Amino acid sequence: MLEYSLVSGLTSSGCDAYILHVTTTPSVSFVTRCDGFDCGIMVSASHNPYYDNGIKLLNGNGEKMEDSVISLIESYLDGDLTPFGGRDIPYASGKKIGRTVDYVSGRNRYVGHLISLSTCSYKGLKIGLDCANGSAWQIAKNVFDALGAKTFVIGDVPNGVNCNENVGSTHIEALRELVVCNSLDMGFAFDGDADRCIAVGVNGEIVTGDEILYIAANYLKSRSELSGNSVVMTVMSNGGIVKSLENCGISCHICGVGDKTVCDTMAKTGSVLGGERSGHILFSKYETTGDGLVTAIMLMEALVENKCGFSQLLKGCKPFPQIAKNICVLEKTTAMRGISELCEKLQRKLNLRLVVRPSGTEQVIRIMAEGESEENCALAIKIISDNIRDNSG
Q1: 286-289 — which CB contacts under 8 Å span 24+ positions?
Q2: Contact present, 192 and 52 (Cβ < 8 Å)
Q3: CA 134 to centroid of chain Cα atoms
């Protein structure tokens, strides 16, 4: 419904709409950038349930649209016509009406692009793929089959309302069970629009975005491809992994949460690698946005070239105990009242690091506690959770 509504609105305004159909956010970014489009539009709930479907806008470089443009669009939708001379955007008529073009060929070129990134054969490897009943449900298998792997796939039966439902990168236990029960070599879980990737090792060990950055940074450094020997991470990243990277001679630029913030910080610092604990990883050599499939391929390159598993590549990586919790709330601003002061007190008293922030996509407050004592982390999480519930009534 959203796709056809968008296409109708675009063509009625005089734009030509090239339709990629069911595809991933990074593929829209790739096609927009490489085929010279003015912008890209993705309908997606990302890692959320289907009823949170929204619209992601990409500029001509395949990057998340500038905040100033987003604000202008939102103000127009809210009825503010001031920037438009007090008038609605006019409809096109006659020959000026736009047209629709079936552009599945663009998606196919993206698949070819992914296959071309690998310099290794995956023949003889058994790989699990969790496609979250989302947009990667065909693409992921096609790519890894083409690279020679024997694939085992779950989350590949989308029906429009089961996206991310008990599968995908936010429900990693499904992939973990697939890998362990079938004695697979490794597995990769994507989210609904496939811009995230979380991995699972042969013994069921979970490799988060932070560990992926550790592996990728050292892999690129060994190939002299890590510009400035630096990587961009967020405030939610594990401080122990930051220190572990620094022990490897790799500096970390810490920024706010969000893949757009990571991308902007990478541009400012000249870093070629950045990402989030959630599995948003950005390799600027290949993409201008996070791409779960590129992440999986880069991990495979490191594994195959080193002839080892995740555990060997993570030697020297020592994360601190970290606990995260989401609290559902009705009103995020009210729930956050007095939280900053409380966090300052707890950090001093319990010797830990706290990050408490409202989600940008859901009606939840996200809490993260990190320190040398897991007990103190759990205590801080409980105190803050109780405070949020009191604030929310």
Answers
A1: 286/117, 287/26, 287/29, 287/30, 287/62, 288/29, 288/33, 288/61, 288/62, 288/63, 288/263, 289/25, 289/26, 289/29, 289/58, 289/62, 289/63, 289/64, 289/195, 289/259, 289/263
A2: no
A3: 14
Q: Would you call 46 a catalytic residue per the annotation? A: yes
Mean pLDDT (whole number) for 102-124: 96
Which residue in the list 27, 29, 44, 46 is annotated as catalytic? 46
Beta sheet of 322-328, edge-to-edge order = 322-328, 364-371, 352-358
> What are residue 199's DSSP bridge partners?
188, 207
Beta carbons within 10 angstroms of residue 21's beta carbon: 10
DSSP annotation string for 227-239: GGGEEEEETTS-H
Average pLDDT over residues 280-302: 96
Q: What are the phi and psi torsion angles at 305 (to 5°)?
A: -65, -35
> What would the pLDDT profile of 176-202 be if each residue is shown by its tens digit?
999 999 999 999 999 999 999 999 999
Mean pLDDT within 254-276: 95
Residue type present at position 139: I
Give the separation between CA 273 and CA 266, rounded to whole angstroms. 7
Q: Find the largest Cα–Cα distance for the chain.
A: 70
Q: Which residue has the tokens 């690091």?
A: 353
Kindly state the average pLDDT of the residues 77-86: 90
Q: What is the pLDDT of residues 317-361, one digit of tens each?
A: 999 999 999 999 999 999 999 999 999 999 999 999 999 999 887
**Which of helix, strand or coil describes residue 23?**
coil
Bridge pairing between strands 206-207 and 197-201? antiparallel
Q: Report the C-alpha gap between 60 and 64 in whole angstroms.
A: 10
Query: What share of the chain in percent tops pLDDT 70?
Result: 100
Contact between 309 and 354 under an 8 Å Cβ cutoff? The reply is no
Q: Give the Cα separation of 220 and 13 in Å (integer).
A: 46
Give pLDDT tens digits for 12-39: 999 999 999 999 999 999 999 999 999 9
Q: Report yes or no: 324 and 257 within 8 Å, Cβ to Cβ.
A: no
Confidence at residue 393, expressed as pLDDT on a 0 to 100 scale: 65
Average pLDDT, integer, range 220-232: 97
